[in-house]
Amino acid sequence: MPVWRAPSRHGVGRLPLVSVTAPALRAHGITALRGTRRVLHGLGLDVPAGRFTVLLGGNGCGKTTLLHVLAGLLRPQAGTVQVAGQPQSAYARRALARQLTLLPQDATAPARMTVRELIQQGRYPWQRWWQPNSTEDERAIDEAARLTDVHALLDEPLADLSGGQRQRSWIAMTLAQATPIVLLDEPTTFLDVAHQISVLTLLARLSAQGRTIVAVLHDVNQAAWFADHLVLMREGRILAQGTPAQVVTPACLRATFDLEAHVARDPASGLLFSVPALPARSGRATP
Ligand SMILES: Nc1ncnc2c1ncn2[C@@H]1O[C@H](COP(=O)(O)OP(=O)(O)O)[C@@H](O)[C@H]1O
Ligand SMILES: [Mg+2]
Question: How far is it, in rounded angstroms, from Cα 43 to Cα 60?
Fold first, then answer.
């Protein structure tokens, strides 16, 4: 029977069952080891739902380790992770794989595998081994290929693709898993700048459509242009987080990377950008 709900204070008549403001992921007090080394130190993080979150930080600061903990691939020594409001430990493996997916930095596949076969791998949490692809699987594969523009490549072996095409195929596999949360570890590394922008544009579009995206990037400017929420890490801790305008500042860049930089806005596009403050070079004319 339909239940009448009074209009809320915010003017929303029908309230969702799950609060839209609940974080998609919540990490609390995470301490994690790699080998015997402590890599994350009591780290806490809320990942906002339906937003594009970017993790930035120097090499070895623990970004990959944090993604592994969030994805349930690495058990922290201490601390808890909540996924969509439930303890991560309460999910069965398949149930967790229907909530989130991680595209690792060093993803590899057999060279003769075709793009279609790779994308199909993403459907595993929805399939039983004795069942062939369902219509739903076909639809998800098709949509993932369309979003990443690999439709024309579906029957090509991965070995015959360019780096950009291969990376888009991996992202297609990740999207075919049809999870509300998508984690990507350096998805733009090894891509030329045009492909970097196209991958980031796609991720931003997916988050605008309601998916929660978390990506590790190295380019501060691209992070500033595309992220809704930016998280700065150093030595296993979170230094600062907020909107790009809040955290792309000379003070935050110095604290995160030991980098002296100027931050400005491009008057034409309104985009925020940073440039390193280089020492003056004698004998070199300013262009
Ligand atoms: N398998 C491992 N064994 C030992 N140390 C590791 C291992 N993997 C990563 N580390 C160390 O843990 C730290 C954090 O690594 P990582 O999370 O990969 O950082 P990031 O992704 O920010 O570069 C680094 O100092 C790295 O050398
Ligand atoms: Mg890494």
Answer: 15
How would DSSP label each residue in 193-228?
HHHHHHHHHHHHHHHHTT-EEEEE-S-HHHHHHH-S
Between 124 and 253, residue with greater pLDDT: 253
Q: What is the DSSP letter of 6?
A: P
Nearest atom of ligand 1 to the alpha carbon of 57: 22
Residues, CB-to-ion distance under 5 Å, ligand 2: 63-64
Distance 34 CA to ligand 2 centre (A): 13
* Among candidate residues 167, 27, 182, the one with its CA nearest the CA of residue 97: 182
Can you read off the two tokens belonging to residue 263? 């931050």
Where b means 16+ CB within 10 Å and e means fewer, 98-120 reads: bbbbbbbeeeebeeeebbbbbbb
Helix, strand, coil percentages, rounded to 5, for the chain: 35, 25, 40
Q: Most distant CA pair in the chain: distance in Å?
A: 81
Contacts of 128 (CB under 8 A, 6+ apart): none
Whether the Cβ atoms of residue 42 and residue 30 lie closer than 8 Å to each other:
yes
Provide the mean pLDDT of the chain.
89
Asked whether residue 41 carries a pLDDT value surpassing 90, the answer given is yes
Does residue 64 have its Cβ closer than 6 Å to ligand 1?
yes
Domain 25-276 matching CATH 3.40.50.300: the answer reads: yes
Judge residue 3's burial from the number of C-beta atoms within 10 Å of its C-beta, 0-12 exposed, 13-18 middle, 19 or more buried: exposed
